[in-house]
Amino acid sequence: MWEAISGWGGWDEVGAGGVWLMTSCLFVIGLAGCVVPVIPGHLVILMGAVAHRWILGPESGLSWWSVGAIALLLVASQIFEFASGAAGSKWFGGTKWGSGGAIVGGIVGMFFMPFGLILGPLLGAYAFEAMFAKQEHKPAMVSGVGSAVGTVAGLVVKIAVGVVMVIWFFSDIFLVG
Length: 177
Hints:
The protein is mainly α. The protein has 7 helices and no strands. 37% of the residues are buried.
């Protein structure tokens, strides 16, 4: 039925080379997305792995277990990324208000890309420390700077996890498969 509607026979005509090209492009876009905030990098990498396995089937050499492991890496990275600003604020001596402000600032900062991703947690932690924890200017600012440091650390981990996801994909195909 699909052949009659689409006018072509499906993925068989594209061939494995076309699938590898698509997968590689998705991986490059995904790795770029680990740095560029508007691209969901890890999700794009996972989509590339799922599409590769789904289109080529078992002959792809990629196991569904590896796709699951890549998905778990995505989840762990996202949790770490959201918590990193709050952890940085706490590490630098901030209160629970500073940590909460870093999370709120991080969420609001997503709408003011790219600078909002760093400034959001910093300003959120500072504002919550000053308003709710009644901190003086200097301790509130230290908490804000801590949240920015934590956010940058989260970015570094995000990039590293993206690279690990791609390495896992290729290792399963070429070393295990």
